[in-house]
Amino acid sequence: MTIRIIIADDHHIVREGFRMVMESQQDFLVIGEASDGIEAIQMVEKLKPDVLILDLMMPGLSGLEVARQVNKQTHIVVLSMHNNEAYVIEALRNGVYGYVLKDSTTKELVKAVRFASKGLRYLSEPFADKAIDAYAQLAESGVVDPYKELTTREREVLYFVAQGKNNAEIGEKLIISARTVEVHRANLMHKLGFRNQADLIRFALKKGILSMDDDNPLG
Predict the structure, then answer these.
(1) Which of 101, 116, 140 is the last residue in one of the domains?
(2) Strands 75-80, 3-8: pairing kind
(3) Same domain (yes/no): 159, 109
(4) Domains of the chain: total
(5) 3-state secondary structure at position 50
(6) What is the pLDDT of residues 130-147, one digit of tens each?
(7) What is the C-alpha to C-alpha distance for residues 150 and 132, in angstroms, rounded to an integer?
(8) Residue-wise over 186-219: b if at least 16 C-beta within 10 A, else e?
């Protein structure tokens, strides 16, 4: 059985490297590459891959938000530089099957893709010592997350607001009016209980929606 794969990473040379690794396996077939979060979602919806290999920090929309939107359509393996349990738990909350660190071996990535294609979880070596079920339980426990109450459009607006973009710029990105952006912005601020953009940016960083490498006012 051939495992059909999409690779989503904003660096062309990284995608090329992953493609070479994947295509070295006789039963793997790379059917597409995406360079940002929005393109990744569109490609998954169009090509319906068995596995999406997804960079955690993607431009356009973060890898976590991409995972939330497409986890019912494909099995996801996240690639991350973050050796942090909080990111693993958040990834699992968003329907991810595999979490592989970028400094892992290619053997680990291949194994994660095979596991994910069968609907099995795989976590990179630093996390594998602990039971995967324990991470899954953590991901499913806890108080209600107000972020989950946001609509898809509100989450998109949140991402761009956190980057410091104004209503007109966000409207151009999402092909909606600046006034509509303003409404979504007010709604999400109310739902999350934020009073200013600094609160929103800190939240976006904590949730992994925005990385420290993104262009944001807090640098």
Answers:
(1) 140
(2) unpaired
(3) no
(4) 2
(5) coil
(6) 545 555 665 565 555 677
(7) 28
(8) eebbeebebeebeebbebbbebbbbbeebebeee
